[in-house]
Amino acid sequence: MSHDAYEIEHPYVFDAGNGFKVKKVITRGWPACIFCSAKNELSSWPIWPEIQNRFQVVSPNMTQQKYSDGNMLVAQKMGLPSLLQQDLIISNSRIALAKKCVSYILQQIRQRCSDGTKSVWIPYTEILGQILPAQKGSDNRITKRMFSFLVIITLARAHLRGRLEYGDENLAIADIGNDLREVLSITQNLSGIPPFKIKIFKEVFLPLFKSKGGPDKSEDGEMEEKVTALTTRELCDFHKKTMNKTITTDSMKKTYLNEFLDNDLIDEVQSQLDKRQKIYFPLVDLDLDLKTSDSASKMATESNEKISLLSNMTPFDNFLQYPMIVVSKNCKNIPEHWLELQILALLKCRMGFDRFGLYNKNGEQVCMCRFIKEYFNEKRSNLIRYFSRPIFYSFSSKVFGDMIRLPITVEEGSS
Fold it and tell me: Which part of the chain has CATH 1.10.10?
């Protein structure tokens, strides 16, 4: 049901009773549907790569608490008086209020997009474009999907955001601490990898890899692997030790490693010690705060505890999420003062107009320094924390050219 044009045409073959006939079907707009499967069988389907490319894929992260809450909800809806349900579950008045809120938001979005423009300024747009993976064709679709979500969320919250006057445009400014974070929460499980497989990656693959002191060597010490990596046998042995379950090397590869490879979580190289096998190493670390410990087993335990706490704290814990985006191999380092550089770039590229103004969420026009301070707020929300390889460096922009931070910034209160 997903396509790349507003209107598409395709033939439909049907049995008319006196033979097969063909009719043309025209689809207008952007129809949507939900594709569901309750079994872990999707990755073996030939059509699965196309489903991943066309759909927003999520894997429900079910827990015992959710099942218990589900039972209680069923009991309340089936066994309590309707008036009591209005108080305990949700009232008709709250449903009506929610519908009014949605209608208001849709009206605001339509007004801002009435002339076909998006009316949004995303300060980190170019950096985000460089950082996102760009190794295959589907990455472009994923990038477009992420930016679409970011525009929609920013427009829906435009009355709570600062704005930018740029010529005759009045643009809502995308936030990091809320808008980008919510987009990442929605899209980060783009692969739809089942939670139990991510569990193996976090509690078996990563801890075992971190426990290695370096590349493996031959018994005589004359040969050495090119990179620090794991064999399937090592993974099977550690899986048995950590999970208390035996798994064969063939099952390890077919069930887990192949899917990790397909979703760019790991990479493989030919072993130098045994040319008959390949060895594997991670491309991304899904742990944010994992501390170095004396044993890989202890590391796996700490990882599991932190993941559980993180899941309980987020409003998006219904779905398994990755903490950080895998940075594209071709991207440049992220500048520490990227927001200041982006504002200066806008000032540099004013094409024949003088109207330029930054406004905070209260509608007050502010100078650049105050805007930056309020944009990051006391929590110091920063673009860097959402991506791996958080390196600060000077910034070379494909659009604006080389940019460096000025030694003296605009003082508070100046225009």
Answer: 195-313
**Residue 185, CB-side half-sphere exposure with 13 Å CA sphere:** 16
Report the candidate in 148, 149, 147, 157 with the shortest Cα–Cα distance to residue 105. Answer: 157
Paired tokens of 362: 């209260």
Is 346 in a helix, a strand, or coil?
A: helix
Exposure pattern of 8-31 as b/e (b: 16+ CB <10 Å)?
A: eeeeeeeeeeeeeeeeeeeeeeee
CATH no. for 195-313? 1.10.10
Distances (CA, A) of 192 to 48, 52, 307, 320, 326: 11, 8, 18, 9, 15
CA dihedral 318, 322, 328, 331 (to 10 degrees): 100
- Here the tokens at position 365 are 């026009």
383 has a pLDDT exceeding 80: no
pLDDT for residue 39 is more than 70: no
Residue 375 pLDDT exceeds 60: yes
What is the secondary structure of 175-244 as a DSSP string?
PIIIIIHHHHHHHTTTT---HHHHHHIIIIIHHHHHH--SS-B-TTSS-B-SS--B-HHHHHHHHHHHHS
Average pLDDT, the chain: 75
Question: pLDDT tens digits for 117-136?
Answer: 778 999 988 878 877 777 77
